[in-house]
Structure formats: structure tokens, C-alpha cells
């Protein structure tokens, strides 16, 4: 009986597949598109498809408008009051005509709006851009990514030398000691600027109040642990990162009571903490490195200890825009890591000996997703 049901299911799936293939072939014909755009029952769908395709084509122009508005500090200039194109032009160095063109583009993208006097003012999205911690720094940082994927075919074929690989040198020097203080400061500043959103989402997802001690591996200059101690000042925290990064962290008074340890997570991790966090760490590294790191984490944790992995992830069998488009390209440009699905990370954890592996539901998966696991 089971075999008959299975065969029937396969036949139905095959039939649906053939119907869908024929339908997509029909939709791909120019004559059908022309008809669908006029026919009352399909006109709305055809228009929506057209708008989505146009947004895909124009997406780079949209991002460049945002980049220019942020780089010229137009949002900051408008923080307290509306301003005319002439006044904004005098503040940015653009001609009033070019400034008006840029601001009108900002209005179209709902970053700005125009008041009754014809002056530009912040719209909700523009105000949010100012209010999201680290977003300005990340937007300005994207000139490197835009350069790296200017020729996407050559980029995907491995025929380019991405600039992002030079910006994040630590992922290519995993034995710890070659990263300079200057390079460490460069990437630590950007990580710290953007870490608050990730920290908020992670702390809203996992109850850190259950821990007595927490070690953040690859913790940079302590941005994540700072947010942890704000909510849970009773937790003893340890920051573990490359020696040059730890030296930079020592100069910052944000973690006066934290233990700071420099080293390579591929050599050995300190023991004695009942939880270890890996915040935006795995997707920087190759499968081999991830496997080795999780093995070290397993060894460092006591029985019952918890590992918390928080980073942007792909959708696996259901691809998503943030993980499968943006972060997949970004990590490819870094040349060593890749964005992974929660199921893939779960497999790494299981192979390392972890149990009770759980993928947590995230309110903002475009910011981060969280996977936890216990050491038996």
C-alpha cells in the first residue's frame, strides 16, 4: 500500500512539474507578456512582475543614491530641520541642480520627503537610517563590495582580486600572530559599529541570564560583550581574539571587568566558561576551519555547556534575499568563508559532538539568525 501511494505521489509530482514547465515556457514568450499586460484578469500580475524586474535592473542605482546621500551627510544635515536645495548644495559641494536631482531620487526611495515650502526633510526611512547603530559605516564600507562585483561573471569565475579580502586580513591569517595593529583596528571599528543590532537580536533570542560565565570567541574589541553586560552585569565575561585585536580592546574602557585573552582559536581555547558565543564568526571561514573551531569549542566547554552561534544565514532549501544574495556574495568576496544554512551549521555541531541543537526563530533574520547546542 505504501509503495502504491509513493508511486502515485511521484506521478502527481511529475505531472505538476510538466504543467509548470509548460506554463513558464508560455510566460517567457513576448507575445504572452503583451497580451497579459492588457487582459483584465492578468494585467495586475503582469504589472507587478514588470515592476519587480525593473527594481532588479535598477537596484544598483538605488544603492548608489543611498550611498551618495549618506556620504554627503544629507540625512545628518536634515536631522533638525528641512532645508532647500540651495542650502544643501552649499553644504555638500554639489550644484543646486545636481543636488536637487539626488534629493528627488531620495524622495522616490522614501528616504526624504518634500514639505509645503519645497524644502527637503527626513522621511521615516531616512530617519531610521540615522537611528540604526553602525548602518552609516556599513553603507560607506560597501564601495569595496560594489567594486568587487562590478563584473559579476568574472567575480564568480574567480578571475578577480576582491578588495574585501584585503580589508578583512584576519580570515587569511588564522594562526593569529601576523595581523598588524593597524589592520586589527580597521576591521574592529567596523565590526563594533555594526555589532549592536546583532547583539540586540541575539540577546532577545537567547536567555543569557542562565549563564554564570561567557566567553566570546572572535569578540573583536568587545562590542557584543558590552551589550551582554548591560543586560546581565552579573555574568563573568571573557573576550578571546587575535593578540593584535585584544591589544586594541585593552585600550577601550568598555569592558573593565572582562578577562581578555589573545590567541588563535585553532590552537586552543581557554576552559572554565559554561557558555561560548561565536558572533558572526563561522561565515568568515572555510568548512575545514569551522569544523576545527567547533571541535575546540566542544573541548573547552564543560558537560552541559552551551555554544551560541549568531550570524546571517542562508535559507537552505528556501533561499532568502539577505543570506543567499547579499551575504553569499559578500563572503565570497572575502575569499575564505561562506554564508550557511542553519541545517548546515547544525550538521557541523552534530559532527563535533554537540546535542540538543536548536535553530531559534529570529525577528530580524536579515540581521542575524541563531543556532544553539549543548555539550552532553
Features:
7-stranded mixed sheet; two-stranded antiparallel ribbon; disordered N terminus; 53% helix; 16 helices; 376 residues; globular; single chain; alpha/beta
- Total of helices: 16
* Uncertain spans: 1-5, 173-177
Order of helices and strands: HHHHHHEEHHHHHEHEHEEHEHHEE
Coarse shape:
globular
Proportion of helical residues: 40-55%
Radius of gyration: 25 Å
Would you tell me the structural class of the helices and strands? alpha/beta
Distance between the termini: 41 Å
Query: For the residues shown, what is the average pLDDT?
Result: 86
Strand content: 5-15%
Largest sheet features: 7 strands, mixed
Total number of strands: 9
Order the strands across the largest sheet as they lie in space. 5-4-3-6-7-9-8
Structure description:
- With 376 residues, the protein is α/β, with parallel strands linked by helices.
- 53% of the residues lie in helices and 12% in strands.
- It contains 16 helices and nine strands.
- The strands form two sheets. A seven-stranded mixed sheet has the order 5-4-3-6-7-9-8, with helices on both faces.
- The longest helix has 32 residues, at 40-71.
In short:
It is built from 16 helices and 9 strands.
Topology:
Layout lengths: L1 H26 L2 H7 L3 H32 L2 H4 L7 H8 L3 H13 L3 E3 L5 E3 L1 H8 L3 H14 L3 H5 L7 H4 L13 H25 L7 E5 L5 H9 L4 E6 L1 H8 L8 E4 L12 E5 L7 H14 L5 E6 L9 H14 L7 H10 L3 E6 L8 E6 L2
Parallel strand pairs: 3-4, 3-6, 4-5, 6-7
Antiparallel strand pairs: 1-2, 7-9, 8-9
Helix pairs in contact: 3-6, 3-8, 5-6, 11-12, 11-13
Amino acid at each position: 500500500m505504501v509503495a502504491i501511494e509513493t508511486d502515485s505521489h511521484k506521478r502527481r509530482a511529475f505531472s505538476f512539474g510538466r504543467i509548470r514547465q509548460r506554463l513558464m515556457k508560455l510566460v517567457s514568450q513576448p507575445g504572452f507578456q503583451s497580451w497579459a499586460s492588457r487582459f483584465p484578469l492578468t494585467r495586475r500580475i503582469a504589472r507587478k512582475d514588470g515592476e519587480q524586474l525593473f527594481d532588479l535592473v535598477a537596484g544598483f542605482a538605488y544603492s548608489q543614491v543611498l550611498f551618495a546621500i549618506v556620504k554627503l551627510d544629507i540625512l545628518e544635515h536634515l536631522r533638525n530641520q528641512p532645508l532647500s536645495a540651495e542650502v544643501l548644495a552649499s553644504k555638500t559641494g554639489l550644484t543646486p541642480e545636481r543636488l536637487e536631482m539626488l534629493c528627488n531620487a531620495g524622495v522616490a526611495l522614501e528616504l526624504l520627503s518634500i514639505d509645503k515650502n519645497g524644502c527637503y526633510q527626513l522621511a521615516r526611512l531616512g530617519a531610521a537610517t540615522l537611528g540604526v547603530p553602525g548602518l552609516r559605516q556599513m553603507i560607506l564600507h560597501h564601495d569595496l563590495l560594489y567594486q568587487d562585483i562590478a563584473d559579476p561573471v568574472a567575480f564568480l569565475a574567480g578571475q578577480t582580486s576582491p578588495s574585501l579580502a584585503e580589508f578583512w586580513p584576519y580570515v587569511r591569517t588564522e594562526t593569529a600572530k601576523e595581523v598588524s595593529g593597524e589592520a586589527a583596528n580597521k576591521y574592529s571599528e567596523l565590526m563594533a559599529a555594526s555589532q549592536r543590532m546583532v547583539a540586540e537580536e541575539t540577546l532577545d533570542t537567547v536567555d543569557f541570564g542562565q549563564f554564570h560565565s561567557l566567553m566570546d570567541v572572535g569578540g573583536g574589541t568587545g562590542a557584543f560583550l558590552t551589550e551582554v553586560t548591560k543586560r546581565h552585569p552579573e555574568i563573568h565575561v571573557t573576550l578571546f581574539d587575535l593578540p593584535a585585536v585584544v591589544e586594541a580592546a585593552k585600550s577601550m574602557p568598555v569592558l573593565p571587568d572582562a578577562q581578555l585573552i589573545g590567541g588563535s582559536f585553532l590552537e586552543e581555547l581557554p576552559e572554565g566558561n559554561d557558555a561560548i558565543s561565536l558572533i558572526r564568526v563561522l561565515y568568515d571561514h572555510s568548512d575545514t576551519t569551522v569544523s576545527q573551531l567547533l571541535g575546540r569549542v566542544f573541548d573547552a566547554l564543560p558537560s552541559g555547556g552551551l555554544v551560541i552561534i549568531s550570524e546571517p544565514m542562508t535559507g537552505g532549501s528556501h533561499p532568502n534575499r539577505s543570506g543567499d544574495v547579499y551575504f553569499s556574495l559578500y563572503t565570497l568576496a572575502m575569499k575564505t568563508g561562506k554564508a550557511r544554512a542553519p541545517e548546515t551549521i547544525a550538521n557541523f555541531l552534530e559532527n563535533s559532538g554537540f546535542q540538543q541543537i536548536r535553530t531559534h526563530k529570529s525577528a530580524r533574520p536579515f540581521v542575524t539568525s541563531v543556532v544553539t547546542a549543548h555539550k552532553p
